[in-house]
User: Which sequence fits this backbone?
């Protein structure tokens, strides 16, 4: 590290190195500490970027939640204030308004993993730590190289960096084996493949290491290699769709209209794809998708009746 390394950057590196030390200690009880350290370290790297972007004489304005006006040499200046520094949400907002691009999904996954171990002790802490390490590896490389212009291999202790590299590679291999078991499933409803193969997460620990327990979609459950929990597809898939389409669900609730995924009229799970016009879980379509009288499209709730609400109303008057 160079002489001009800031406190923030130093703390970030230290936190990540501590996380890796938690991992290499081999003590299962250090899983919570490992994930806390790794997540905190990554957030500090983002703060370092915001610090560097803060205008001179602003008391590093971008890393503080609050701002206040101050008189400096007869001029009004806005400077950072208070005691609270930015957290994940504010960091993301600032990056977005400064037009700095980043793959937030990976960071959100690390955050979910950290939250999970706070509530639930995994059966395979080593696997959880490895997955977190692999995620951190990608995040650290991304922020250091693209935003801070520091080579990760130089910033981090050599042993720490090579541990992260090795574990990330192992993780990738195991994740690929799990993905292959899901890719090979027979009778996956059309439109469900991309979610089943690439986006499922364990509902207990947020791990992506889910292995299909049977060869057929209808019979399979998912066994988590990290926490040991076996979950049914009926639980995992709707949760995944809820996460993937979170923004659409939010907008549909706020502005009215239908989200791209709705409750299936057949199996009653949140897995009915309007785009495919069939359920991604039970593979059934709906009894009626168009009104038999006027031909208008029926909403998912209306689709067990042959007519839209308006036509039913008109018809009932004719009786
Ligand atoms: Zn799990
Ligand atoms: Zn269904
Ligand atoms: Zn109608």
Assistant:
């Amino acid at each position: 590290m160079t002489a001009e390394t800031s406190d923030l950057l130093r703390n970030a590196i230290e936190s990540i190195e501590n996380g890796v030390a938690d991992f290499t200690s081999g003590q299962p009880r250090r899983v919570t500490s490992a994930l806390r350290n790794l997540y905190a370290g990554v957030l500090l790297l983002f703060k370092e970027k915001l610090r560097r972007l803060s205008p001179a004489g602003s008391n590093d304005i971008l890393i503080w939640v609050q701002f206040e006006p101050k008189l400096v040499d007869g001029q009004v200046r806005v400077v950072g204030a208070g005691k609270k520094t930015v957290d994940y949400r504010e960091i993301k907002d600032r990056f977005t308004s400064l037009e700095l691009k980043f793959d937030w999904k990976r960071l959100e996954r690390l955050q979910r993993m950290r939250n999970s171990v706070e509530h639930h002790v995994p059966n395979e802490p080593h696997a959880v730590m490895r997955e977190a390490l692999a995620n951190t590896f990608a995040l650290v490389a991304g922020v250091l190289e693209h935003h801070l212009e520091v080579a990760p291999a130089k910033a981090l202790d050599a042993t720490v960096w090579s541990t992260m590299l090795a574990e990330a590679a192992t993780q990738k291999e195991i994740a690929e084996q799990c993905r292959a078991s899901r890719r090979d499933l027979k009778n996956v409803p059309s439109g469900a493949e991309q979610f089943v193969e690439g986006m499922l997460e364990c509902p207990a620990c947020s791990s992506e290491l889910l292995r299909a327990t049977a060869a057929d979609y209808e019979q399979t459950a998912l066994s988590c290699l990290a926490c040991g929990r076996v979950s049914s597809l009926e639980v995992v898939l709707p949760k995944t769709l809820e996460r993937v389409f979170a923004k659409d669900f939010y907008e549909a609730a706020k502005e009215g209209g239908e989200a791209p995924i709705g409750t299936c009229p057949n199996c009653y799970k949140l897995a009915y794809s309007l785009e495919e016009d069939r359920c991604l879980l039970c593979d059934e379509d709906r009894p009626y998708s168009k009104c038999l009288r006027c031909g208008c499209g029926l909403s998912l709730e209306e689709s067990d009746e042959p007519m839209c609400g308006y036509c039913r109303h008109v018809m009932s008057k004719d009786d």
In short: Residues 290 and 296 are 6 Å apart (CA to CA). The chain has a mean pLDDT of 91. The two ends are 85 Å apart (CA to CA).
